[in-house]
Write a structure and sequence with these properties.
Length: 541
């Protein structure tokens, strides 16, 4: 009996695991009608999306083609399987079910692989470190103070108001906001300007699969966040992008924390891309969940582990500017940024006080793989907001640093429409107060957006048709085709985070550049001569 007891205990434990509901991503083998869709992209996205991609040299590829709906229908028909979300970028479906029921899906010919949210079921375990932290920490990054004020100081701190004075208020630009709900946005006076101008373009409630994203019953976090961009009360409050257009997507369920919220976010980002969105703002962060089996460890904040982080990187590749709050873990054991703020493609914003000092609750950097984060800082301590009762008040958290910055960057991009998202990010980092000496608390510091605009406008540029960098994407080498009359150029190549990886002089006789030693990712290639400067985005495969 003594020998039998351990076996029985193991068997009972194993049966318990088999019976538990699991979250998993089911990756599919293929998509239908890919060639036809790519030949006629208007069938899978809006003209605005096509124009944005063409303007910034972003390829329309198989990732833009929707998931095969017949596969989803078949999955829904399988025993014990619930389909919660889908992703065309990853060609996968987020499901729940028991281990047994999910395992049975491998018999379907169109199932390529299955990735469990509980990594112990994939053959390895995340560190138990994450289980030491509060499970709801950082989900909704807000510390409400209820002190009344105005939005003047937070706009002036980054010189966003200087962009407004030049009539760059976000007009013609589109922002998607991912959050937990936007109660009363369709009726509040603070958003009357947005509605009257036709700038509320729509939205969606992904957790409930409905168009009800402004119900008073939803969590108010998204309304507060939106107010820092789109809010307008004459003589009382002006958001940083009052004339931009907005899509509002509910991706977060405030009453619980489960991995499917990452999938909702990716699905929303995909929809934003297909609608031609320029900027995404996310004031959410993920590290721990209601069920500790799904928890991340700080070592997972490496820019390429969390599903939502990988989605943010693709959103960046698709040409959108992804602005994300750093998190509120500065005073907690976790300490560092949360997903997707760790993404290389995310522009991560931490919080400062009214005087520009680091706010102690703001999550710190660097990422687990040593990259500088946050990218920049904005007001997050007693920031001015408008609540769902249409009253101006104040709240604290990096949740508000992010939209303050996102709205301002939208206006800057309006002023500099020829820049790519990567170029815009680097331009803003370079005018940060601590750019020369970044710190783990402040990253590159508080940016001066007026200076960023002046720097861009005062920099002479080559004619974009003069040089040709090809192939792009590149594998091991790329060549530079020189225009007539130019024989040499100083080439500098940077990661999207500003780290220089190549610096050399290139001439027309020896115009090949070796990239075989570089990691895959997105880079900036800067060409400089006495005639001016031109920057190109290069994708390394």
């Amino acid at each position: 009996m003594k020998r039998l007891l351990p076996f029985l205990l193991f068997a009972i434990a194993f049966q318990t695991v088999l019976a538990q509901e699991q979250h998993a991503w089911v990756y599919l083998t293929d998509k239908e009608n890919v060639s036809q869709a790519l030949a006629n992209p208007i069938t899978i996205m809006t003209q605005k999306a096509i124009d944005r991609k063409n303007a910034h040299g972003v390829a329309i590829d198989a990732r833009d083609v929707p998931v095969n709906e017949s596969y989803i229908t078949t999955l829904k028909q399988q025993t014990g399987i619930t389909v919660l979300a889908k992703s065309k970028w990853f060609n996968c479906v987020h499901i729940t079910g028991t281990l047994t029921d999910i395992g049975a899906l491998t018999s379907l010919a169109f199932v390529d692989s299955i990735d469990y949210a509980d990594d112990t079921l994939d053959g390895f375990s995340r560190s138990a470190e994450a289980q030491l932290h509060n499970q709801h920490q950082d989900k909704l990054e807000v510390l409400v103070d209820f002190n009344y004020g105005s939005a003047t100081a937070q706009a002036e701190q980054i010189n966003a108001h200087k962009l407004h004075e030049l009539d760059y208020t976000g007009s013609g630009m589109t922002i998607a906001v991912m959050d937990s709900g936007f109660p009363n946005v369709s009726t509040m006076g603070a958003f009357q300007r947005m509605r009257d101008n036709g700038n509320l373009l729509g939205g969606y409630n992904f957790p409930d699969r409905s168009t009800d994203y402004t119900s008073p019953s939803l969590h108010n976090h998204g309304t507060l966040v939106l107010s820092d961009m789109a809010g307008y009360i004459e003589n009382q409050f002006v958001g940083t992008a009052p004339d931009a257009s907005y899509y509002l997507f509910r991706t977060e369920n405030a009453s619980s924390e489960t991995p499917v919220e990452e999938s909702y976010w990716v699905e929303a980002a995909e929809r934003a891309d297909s609608l031609g969105v320029d900027v995404i703002n996310t004031s959410l962060g993920y590290n721990t969940f209601d069920d500790a089996r799904y928890d991340y460890a700080t070592t997972d904040m490496d820019g390429n582990t969390a599903f939502i982080t990988k989605g943010a990187n693709i959103a960046f590749e698709k040409g959108m500017l992804v602005v994300n709050s750093a998190g509120n873990s500065g005073n907690a054991a976790w300490g560092i940024i949360t997903a997707p703020a760790d993404a290389a493609g995310a522009f991560t914003v931490g919080a400062v006080t009214a005087t520009g000092a680091y706010a102690s609750f703001s999550s710190r950097g660097p990422t687990a793989d040593g990259r500088v984060k946050p990218d920049t800082m904005a007001r997050g301590s007693t920031a001015s907001v408008i609540n769902q009762g249409n009253s101006v008040s104040s709240a604290s958290g990096t949740s508000f640093s992010s939209p303050i910055m996102a709205g301002a960057l939208t206006c800057l991009w309006q002023a500099l429409p020829d820049l790519t998202n990567a170029e815009l990010m680097q331009l803003v980092r370079e005018v940060g107060s601590t750019f020369a000496t970044p710190t783990i608390q402040m990253g590159y510091g508080i940016p001066d957006l007026e200076q960023a605009l002046n720097n861009a406008l005062s920099s002479p540029q080559f004619n974009e048709q003069q040089f040709l960098v090809s192939p792009n994407p590149v594998t091991n080498f790329f060549d530079i085709r020189f225009p007539s009359g130019v024989n040499s150029v100083q080439l500098s190549m940077y990661t999207i985070l500003g780290k220089q990886v190549i610096s050399k002089e290139v001439n027309s006789a020896d115009n090949r550049v070796d990239t075989s030693h570089l990691n895959t990712g997105v880079y900036l290639v800067q060409l400089l001569s006495s005639q001016g400067k031109q920057t190109y985005k290069l994708i390394k495969q």
